[in-house]
Amino acid sequence: DEHPLAKAPFSSKPHVRVSYYDYQVWFQTIDSNHLTRWEMLRMKMMHEKYFFGRTLLQLPMIGISYGLAHLLVGPPIRRLDGGFREMFMFGTMIYVIMHHWVDKRKVPCRYMDELFTQQSPNGDDLRALTKEYTPELWEDIKAQMSRKGVYVPEPEVE
User: Fold this and answer.
1) pLDDT tier at 71 (50, 70, 90 boundaries)?
2) Taking burial as the number of CB atoms within 10 A of a residue's CB, which of 27, 53, 114, 154 is the most buried?
3) Local structure of 18: helix, strand or coil
C-alpha cells in the first residue's frame, strides 16, 4: 500500500541537518505508541544511521586524541612509567573535547525531511512532541525547512 506522506521534498537541496546530541535528546522524547508503521520504519533507519555514525567516529577519535597527547607530553626520557600516566590523562581530556565537538556537528538526514513534512494528521504528533520537549530543535528544523521552501505546519502544544 502507498503511504500518504511525501517523499523527501526538494531532494536536490540539502536535507535537514541534526547533530548527534540533538538527535539523542529528541529520540528519547518520542512516544512510539503514537507512530504509524511507516514512521516506525523511518525512526528505525534514522536510529541505525545516527548510532553507527556515532560509533564509527569513536575509534579514530581515540587514536587521534592519544596521538596528540603523545605529542603534547613528549618522549619519555628516563621515566620508569614511560609517561603513560600523563599520556592517559591528557589523551582522555583531548578525547572528551573532541567528542563534544563531533557530537555537536550537524549531519544531514533524509528521514527527518520525510517525517516532518508529513501531511496532517500523520506528522502532528512528532511535530507537537518536538516543539514541546525540544523547542530549540523545532525552531532549527523549521528554519531549515523554510530555507528549502517547504512549509511545515505549526503544531498546537497543549
Assistant:
1) confident
2) 114
3) strand
